[in-house]
Structures are given as C-alpha cells and as structure tokens.
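Lecture 7 notes: from sequence to structure.
We start with the chain below.
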Amino acid sequence: MQTPIRQRVASIVQKPEVKRLLTAQEIIDREDRFGGRHFKLLPVVLTRGQGVFLWDVEGKKYLDFLAGFVAVSQGHCHPRLVKTMRDQAEKLTHTSRAYYTEPLGALSEYLTNLFGWDRFIPMNTGVEAGDTALKLARRWAYRTKKIPSNRASILFAKGNFWGRSLAAVSSSTDPNCCTDFGPFMPLFDTVPYDDLKALESKFKADPNICAFMMEPIQGEAGVIVPTEGYLRGVGELCTKYNILWIADEVQTGLGRTGDRLAIDHEKQRPDILILGKALSGGMYPVSGVLADEQIVFGLETGSRGSTFAGNPIGAAVALEAVKILAEEKLAENAKNLGKILRVELEKLPKDIAREIRGRGLLAGVLVNKEIADGWDVCLRLRDAGLLSRPAHGQIIRISPPLTITEDQLREGIHILTSTVLSY
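Predicted structure tokens for the same chain:
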C-alpha cells in the first residue's frame, strides 16, 4: 500500500504539468502590467528572426525595416554570429577588466587597423561610449589645451541624440528627453546643425570649448542629412580653433549609409569616433571609442571603467560582426540599394510624402500629417507585413538589415508605397 507521500509523487510523475502558451494579448498585457511606460510599443509580439524577416507568436511573417534601430545590420541570427557566441560562451563568458583575455586584443587590433586610429576603448552601450568620449575630451582640455580647471565646455549640435543618461539629456534640445530631469550638466552648449557660420561664432566666443560632438547624419532627429561640405567644414574649424571633433557614428557607422563610416562621404577623420549598435550585430551590447594615443592616454588607471565592457563574448561577437560587414560587402549593398530606394520613394506624390531623406539604407519618409498620422501608418504597415516606427511622429523610418536583397527591398517598398497611397 502506497503512503500519502508516494501517492503524491506518483501523481506528479503520471500527470506532468502542461505549460499553456500565452496569447499575444496576454504577453502585451503582462508587460504593460509589470513594466514601465516610458516607451510606446507597436502592438506586435515577436518570437523569431532570420535574416531580414521576423515572425510573431501567431506565426505571421514580417519584413523588418527597423533592424533593431539599425543594430541588426548583419541580419537577424546571422549564422556566423550565432556560432561565435555559442563557441565563446562554452569557453569563457566574463572575467571583468581585472584580467587580460584574448578576444578584446583581437578586436582592438582589428578595429584600429581597419579605421586608422591608435587605440580602442570598449564599452557596452552607445550612451556609455558617448560619455567616454566626453571624458577623454575634458582630460585633454585640462592637460593638453590647458583650459583652466573646471572651465572646459562642450558644444553639441541641436537636434542631437546620443542616449538618455543625465549627461546625454543635458545636451538635448528635445523636450521629451530633457523636461523635468534638471539640473543639467554645466558647460554644455548647443549650436544649430549644418550651420558652419554659427559654429565658428561659438568657437570664437568661447576659448574654453574643448570639443564639438555631432552626428554626421542626425538619425533620431528625423534622418537629417547635412549639406555637402558641412563635415569638411567642421573638421577645418575644429583644427583652426584647436577643438576636438567627436563624431557620433553609433547609428550611421559600419556601412549603414553606403560607406564604411558616414564621415567617409567627405573623407574626414575626426579626433574621436564613437561606434555602437551594429558593432555587434544586435547579438550583444558592444560599443566603443576610437582615438589616438595623445587623447586616449589621458585616462589612466581608475579614471574609466565598466564591469562588462570588453568581456570575451562581446569582443568575440563584435570582431565577427565587423568582419561580416567587410567580407559580405554590406556597405556596398547599402549604397547600391539606397539608390533604388530613393528613386522609388521619390515617385510618391509630394502632397502625401512631403520629403524623402537619407543616405544608403538609412532613410525616412516625411508623411503629411493632414493626410495620415505616422503611428497609424506604421500600424497599417504591420498589418501588411512590414515593421517600422515613426520618428518625431511623422517620419517613417527605413533601415532594414544591410543583408537585404534587391527583391526583398522592392517588396518592402511596394508595401510601404501601397500603404501610404491607401490614404
């Protein structure tokens, strides 16, 4: 005769619990119930990705025209990245920067040789890399330029976006980013983007400016491409006034605009380069800063660090991700398909699509608000099998994985233009 305990054990063995799969709405409701409300999510629950495609929990397939805010340039679950992560995870995942590991040195050597700066400082996220660039600039200001202590100021382009830390929002001109987060970082100032006269006026007025930080193409501001010659002019003015030029290429770098870097369009070399997002193909948070020794060596032991920055998994994945970009010629693909994209989008009526912006496969369609709401357009695109999000309400982002083929791009363009014309 079985004891009560044995009866209960037998019952459990005989009748295993079957876990019920949640519906899409249940998943949405749970996140809304227990998470924050600081991000407006498109109502779709994704469960799988491969290449340029995503699938939701109900099995519906979508073309991805956002690419994880351009982090997934190499395509979802690229087999080389999956293998690299798996192989490294089976050997060594994390040690902190207290010790040397092989992958970080390999990544640093590859990046410095590829881009032509002396040193690479790894971080995790774009905002951390931006903050690192500012610390480098201020150390240089006091120790090389000899600006009086605590007087070094930093200039930013209006419309900038490099994250949402307190330092980042201190430089922001977007009310959504900075309202009710003060007091702000002192000695941060802004200047109109794509305005060399205004920039030189600022440089002349304040001898304590140590750096100018800007995006070669402003992404979050609405895919704002500066006029030809602006980047060259920025470089010349920074050299003239002995001010460090910090180029934020977290979004625009690594092939996205049709060149290896967006600054390559005008053959420029800033003093400090910030990379992120596609640096790891969306597989792991990896960012970093490239600069020459006279700037990098301003940070000595203890002045900068991060627990996870440069860890073996991140470094191994980033190295493979950058190799994929080069070996699969994804910058060239972005340049060629970007031309097709622009030609096709320019066919949209101007009373509906007010403006087509962008370069390469970083583009945006400014939709006439009197005709259609940008969020509603993205909902209709979702229903038609394409995923994107609006920037600043009315600009439909177009930034698919750089592995996209011409046929896939044309399919996405057809969905986009048909949806816009349906209004």
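Points to note: Residues 364 and 397 are 5 Å apart (CA to CA). The chain has a mean pLDDT of 94.
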